[in-house]
Amino acid sequence: MKKRILILGGGFGGLYTALELDRTLAKRDDIEVTLVNRENFILFTPMLHEVAASDIDLTHIVNPIRKMLRRVSFLHAEVECIDLASKSVKVVHSESRHPHDLGYDYLVIALGCTTNFFHLPGLEETAFTMKSLGDAIRLRNHLIDGLEAADFECAAGDRDQLLTVVVAGGGFSGVETIAGINDFLREASRNYSHLSEMQIRVVLVHPGPVILPELGEALGRYTATKLAERGVEIRVNTRVTAVREGRVELSDGTIIPSNTLIWTAGTAAHALCGGLPCPTDRGRIQVNGFMEVEGWPGVYSLGDCATVPDPETGKPYPPTAQHAIRQGKVLAGNIAAAIDSGIDGGGSKIPFRFKTMGQLAAIGRRVGVANILGLQFSGFIAWFLWRTIYLMKLPRLEKKVRVAIDWTLDLFFSKDIVQFQTERSSTMNERERK
Fold it and tell me: Which of 89, 256, 306, 320 could cross-link to 248 by cystine, CB 3.0-4.6 Å?
C-alpha cells in the first residue's frame, strides 16, 4: 500500500513542501502526495499592492500550481473538515460543493491566515482588505469608481468621501499599500477635468509610535517623512474604532469622511485550526521544532497557521514568506525521515533553524527602505534591492520576464485607469424588460 501524504493549503508553506516532495519522495512508486488548495494558483503576495496601484498586470504575480508540480497530485478544492482521529479530511469542490473524503498517513496543515476585524463596528461589512488577488482587483475598481463619480459636477458635495482613503495598519502591508495607491490616485487625477491632485486625501492610521516598527525607529521615521512629502497624512498612536455611513471613526475622536477604509491591521489563523483537538496559541497550531503536532503522530503544521518555535529565543518565528518557504523544505525532509525510519523519524529529523536575512518595503516613486543582515538602506538603493530580490523570488521564469517588462513600461507610460469588470454583459431580453 502506498504511503499517502496530504498537504492542505497552497500558500508558500504548503506549496514549497509539495515542491520539495515533488523533487524527492514523489518519485517513488510507494508514495502518493496530494496538495489541496481552494485556488488553482499561488499568489505572490509581496507584489499584491502593485496590482492595486496599476504597476503590474494582475495575472503576472500568480502561478498555476499544476504547472509547478510534476509528480504531486493537485486538487482544486476547499477544506471543510479535518478529522485527526480517523485520519480523514473532507473537501468540497465546484459550484455544487461536491464532497470528498481524503484519507492520509501523513498530514501537513498549511491553511494560512485570514483577516481579523476584532469585531469593530462596520469593518467586516465595508472595509477593503489586501489578502487575495480579488481584494486587489476590487480595491482598484473601487478607487477608479471614486474618481469617476467625483468628476461629475453634481458630486461636488461628496468629493471628500469619494477622494479620501484611510489605511489602517502601519506594517509592511499597510505602508506599501498606501504608498502605491497614493501615487496611483494622484497621477490618475490628472485625467479628470473637474479634479485636482490637491483634492486627494490619503490617511495612514497606526496604533504604535512609529510606522514599520519591524525595521526600527530610524527607517520608520524616514518612511513617514517621505510619505508626508507626497501628501500622506500619518496618525500614530491612533486606532480605527468604527466605520459608519461613509465615516471612519478614530480612537482620538477624529471622524474622517471616507468611503474607503483599507484594513491591514490584524490577522487570525484559519478557522479550522482553532477547532482541532491539539494545542493552539491564539488559534494557531502549536508544533515542536520539527513542525510536528504533539500528540498526533504523522501530523505537521507550518506557515501562518502554526507557531514554530525559535530554539534560540523560544518565541515563535514570524509568519513571513521567507520563513514559510524554508519551513516547507525542512518539513519535506522530516516527512521523508518519518517514512524511512518510522513515524517519529528517528535521528534523521532536522529541527527548523533560520535567521531572518532581511526585510524590505517599497514606499513608492522609486524609494524604499530595507534592513538586510543588520545593514540599513533607504532611498533608491533600497527600492532597487526590493525589486531585484522579489523578482528573483517570484516563481517561474515566465512570470519574472512578464513583471520585468511591466516595470520597464512603467518607466515610460502613465498608470492604467481601466477597471476590470467581471459582470455578465447585458442581453437583448434584459434591455427589452427595461
Answer: 256
149 within 8 A of 141, measured Cβ to Cβ: no
Q: Domain 123-265+358-410 is in which class? A: alpha beta
CATH number of 3-38+77-115+268-348, picked from 3.40.50.620, 1.10.760.10, 3.40.50.720, 3.50.50.60? 3.50.50.60
Residue ranges of domains in the chain: 3-38+77-115+268-348, 123-265+358-410
- Of the given ranges (152-156, 287-291, 296-300), which has the lowest mean pLDDT? 152-156
10 Å CB burial of residue 85 (0-12, 13-18, 19+) is exposed
Q: What is the pTM of this model?
A: 0.93
SS (H, E, C) 255-273: EEECCEEEECCCEEECHHH
Q: Which of helix, strand or coil describes residue 94?
A: coil
The string of pLDDT tens digits covering residues 104-115 is 999 999 999 999
